[in-house]
Specification:
alpha/beta, 2 domains, two-stranded antiparallel ribbon, HAD-like_sf, hydrolase, about 10% strand, 5-stranded parallel beta sheet, about 35% helix, globular, Rossmann fold, single chain, Hydrolase, about 240 residues
Length: about 240
């Protein structure tokens, strides 16, 4: 194995909870909301799937179906999809929907998994190239910089920058080319079996982690350091 590709959300980082997301935006806007109402609204936003990186929508409204399917291909589509879902939930002020979307792109909204720095640092020390391959509509590089992980990442291949989404093998091929890595000696690590599993079509090994809250997954990445064989490795 000469290179490892990682997904961003649910793999290296986890976004804050819907309740924390809403609470932070309300505090910044100085909009009061009772605790009971905040809890109810956060639950409704979660069920709507309005938080990027959070739970998927229970149902995508018909009028948003087309933009939802293409959401990771441009920043405009990404914003339209998620603010469209958010606007299905009444908020105290209409501008809060855009504020919620802006909040999720800030480093403060994300936490790295406990073993992320250790794993990335160890790969760097071993001379193994590292790339981030993500279906996303915005630039996560500031999140990596703020949390001290940027020095360990050699390349970022992001769907919105190329107009290609995982599981399309072309996105993984771009990452391998940027790293000068042979796909047959490259491991893809992610939490989405369909999207991240697309690397297998290119000949990469694949290892899956669980998309859990940070406190519930203290060591999900450590198998990458040696316990996972690079050929089509998999874990539940």
């Amino acid at each position: 194995m000469t290179a490892v590709l990682f997904d961003f959300s649910g793999t290296l980082f986890r976004v804050e909870s819907c309740a924390a997301w809403l609470r932070a935006v309300l505090a910044d806007a100085r909009v009061p909301l009772s605790e009971a109402e905040l809890t109810r609204t956060a639950r409704a936003l979660e069920e709507a799937g309005a938080l990027p990186g959070g739970p998927a929508p229970l149902r995508v409204p018909e009028e948003l179906a087309a933009v939802w399917e293409l959401r990771d291909q441009t920043p405009e589509l990404h914003r339209a999809a998620y603010t469209g879902l958010s606007r299905r939930v009444p908020l105290p002020a209409p501008e809060l929907h855009d504020a919620l979307y802006e909040r999720h792109m800030t480093p403060a909204a994300w936490r790295p998994y406990p073993d992320a720095a250790e794993v990335l640092r160890t790969l760097r020390e071993r001379g193994i190239a590292v790339g981030v391959v993500s279906n996303i509509g915005w630039d996560p590089r500031p999140v990596f910089r703020e949390h001290g992980l940027a020095p360990y990442v050699d390349t970022y291949v992001l769907s919105y920058e190329h107009g290609i989404r995982k599981p399309d093998p072309r996105l993984f091929a771009l990452a391998c080319a940027a790293l000068g890595a042979d796909p047959a000696r490259t491991l893809m690590v992610g939490d989405d079996r369909r999207a991240d599993g697309g690397a297998a079509a290119l000949g990469c090994g694949v290892h899956f982690v669980d998309h859990l809250p940070v406190a519930e997954r203290p060591a999900g990445l450590r198998p990458v350091l040696g316990l996972v064989p690079w050929r089509a490795a998999e874990s539940s």
